[in-house]
Amino acid sequence: MPNLSVILPVHNGEKFIATAIRSTLTAMPRDSELVVFDDGSTDRTPEILGRIDSARFRVLPGVAGKGLSSALNTLIESTQSNFIARMDADDIVLPMRFRAQLSVLSRGVDFSFLPVLHLGPSRFKVRPTRINRMESDELRLRLLLDNPVAHSTLVCRRDAIEELGGYRDVRSEDYDLWMRAAAAGYSLHRSNVPGLLYRHHDSQVTASDSWLKESRVEPLLVAAHDDLSAKELGQSFDCLEAIRRPSLASAECIGRGSVMIDRIIALARKRLSPPAIRRLSARADSISSVWRAR
Q: Looking at the whole model, is its pTM more than 0.90?
């Protein structure tokens, strides 16, 4: 049984899938496997997958339209490893990613993330990101304001993600999972060394206007945000729309969001380090500035 399973769902990913797989296999420790779920691809993806010859690689064929959350849960169920890692079909793993994250998990962390370097959309453009270590106390408060981690950098304990019931059927399935994990008391950690080239391109699902519009305020996502707020702040503020869709939020919703932000910053000053307080305050200020501009 491998110690680590890297799960990778793909649908019509012929343009980048070979590079994504090659970089993943190169970076993986020996006692690891890469499992790909082909969600009914109609391009050359099945052909590309069929040419990969590695004892640490296997493909689960699927039916088009299964959906990302269902595909991810199928991948998790098909594995038996101690740890689960995520990878996307268009990103590139940097060499020490998995070893670094497994080391973090060995110290009692349940969900490990890394910063990314942004690649594209132009061919040779690589942009740095803000590289800050974020401990669990900071991440739990930050998740009330936005999703500060990239899904494809996740490595987590199998028992943690299974106890949470895996992914739910929402478009922001990653943000939903992080908030549920934080509310349930699991430890989250983002290191300060980039582990991934995160590719930006026109065919990205999460870059489409329809995805952005539909993913902002889904009922399950609202419930997860309210649960985390109640856990961390002692009260649910019902203000996710003000945070994620401020142009459409009512004045009452924005008012509740303002109270929530004040509560977050007050708690941060008691709980967090000065650099973490500054990061959280900067994010809160950027949200508040949008409200003031309305």
A: yes
